[in-house]
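Entry:
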Amino acid sequence: MDSITQAALGASLAGAVAGKTLGRSALLVGAALGTLPDLDVVIDYGTAIANFTQHRGFSHSLFILFPLSFFIAYGLHRWRPVLGYKRWFAVTALILLTHPLLDAFTTYGTQLFWPFGSPVAIHSIFIIDPLYTLPLLGGILAFLFRGPDTRAVMAGLVVSTLYLGWTVTAQQIISDRVESALAQEGLRDAPRMVQPMPFNTILWRVTVMAEDRRAEIVTGFLDGEGPVTVENFPRNPELAKAAVSLEEARRLEWFTDGFLHYENSNGQLTATDIRLGIPGAHPFTFILAKDNGGGLTPEPSARLERPAVAGELLGVLWERMTGSAHVLCLASLTLPPPGEGCT
């Protein structure tokens, strides 16, 4: 999740556990602890793909954060012994462990069990979701202005947690809704990713990977009972096979669970993480190698500049989310005339 949300979650947990003893300073400590795991972004691992895939790595591992909690709690107890060591440990461990657990509900991927296993990505919540964050901020503001009353921050935590539970339920409902459409496309058993569109859990995007194509569906809870629209995007299986001969491509395949789009243009092989953003506005595209016509020449990966997002896109998403428009064409990020589909 975004830094504001993680700081708010940390502050809320600290306020709930230690607010009556530490007062408002508990919020500051909690916010700092909630931000701590994300400081790995300052580490340069050498290449763009290394930086991309090692973020949320060791600093988000439960195997690292749990033992680290003992040492941080000891230091905090020395600083403010008014709070017993056991409660300092409870505060520290709760905040450090819930940070990566919350991140795991997003699409980016969180290496909860580093150095073992693959990243965990549940895909049920967008990385910025005001409906999750606002209850936490409301509880914090009430704590600040009313004094050390933990009921407000507890209420914020309960509401945000219930909302997180709703995201998983909504994801399953959407997954069930598209079953028949995917079966008609011959994609019932193909790898699938179901995730919310930006900033909400009303409108959802379903991405399905076949060997020679990628199917995309946008559907939401305000769509009524009409059929869903399936858009197909071509894939190049031969290019994908050539790409995985490259070490950094294999690393990217592992991190994204294969949800990648490869292109060969202007003598460069690029890979785009199609999980994040939306078609036409995917933020992570990497140059993997040069192609001089005689084969691929690996080079240290570099990230291409993020595509500009048109200002009217938010309006398009709003119309589609509220049901004012029943079809959003991802290939063009436009709304077709009523009654028409995507070309």
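The beta strands are 192-196, 203-209, 213-220, 230-234, 260-265, 268-273, 285-291, 296-303.
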